[in-house]
Predict the structure.
Amino acid sequence: MCCLYILAVPAKKEEMKRSAYIPIALLLLSALAAAWYFWGRASSQPQYTLTQYLTAVYARDYNTAYQWISAEDREVKSREQYLRENPSFSGLALRLVRVLANRMEINDVRSTDHGDKTTLRFNLKLPDASDPSLQEIFLDFDLDRINRLSAEESRAIEQQLKTLAKINKLPMLEGEEQWELVKEADGWRVFLNWAGATRVLFEAKVMEGLPWRFEPVPDEVWAKPGETLHAVYRVKNLSDKPITAKARHINEPKELASKYLEIVQCFCFIQQTLAPGEEKEFPLVFRVNWNVPEELKEFRVSYEFYPIDRFPEN
């Protein structure tokens, strides 16, 4: 305080006005330094890291989420692969869903420390995006429709969310969660143990002389139980004429895959016509179920494309 006082006394009368701002500037700098100090302490805590990660995942801001994932996990999945498996929201859609994500609450946190790792158990409360009222507000989460909204329409959505929250009518889900974090040189990170996840292998075959190039991108994915992930099959007509074909898929091991591997969206059983030289990408969305046995470490998903007139109907 004495330093501030000395600096506040002007040496000359004409400097009075200018010097009057000095203590204010120093106080602002002091407040800023304090804010950075407390933010730095908060950001070094495991709960802060987990909150940032879960908020980003809920908002489907996977580029941000990736930075909160442990270095050990990032050795298994590159950022490029992670973003390919988890398509992100962007533009206005990302901004609006982030408003919803910021309503997430983490309460009653209990931690169990073991060396450089800690396990957090807590009560998680978050907006129920599957509720019909939120589906209607967010236009069924159709990215194209949301990103075409005007500034006035987007403000109206934000106001709707604020009103629902204010009157305690925002539909919420609540449950117990448990996550593991690891302490690294630059702070705490979420440990997902991708190296111990279930491996899903993808194969592509063209049958009966079909002149198509057909390949999965990527050809393998490490899937944690409950994760909904995306892959792509790329196909190109190598002939000089249009060709219609149809695909079927085979999951192995057959009985276990029928119980624990869910194909959410695929291109199988729908005939596809490609013009000469035409290339397309067919999306595949899948999920390994929560209750998959720990000892089951691998699934194989094969797709076979047949000329339409040679497709095995049985």
Remarks:
- The first strand starts at residue 105 and ends at 114.
- The two ends are 87 Å apart (CA to CA).
- The chain has a mean pLDDT of 87.
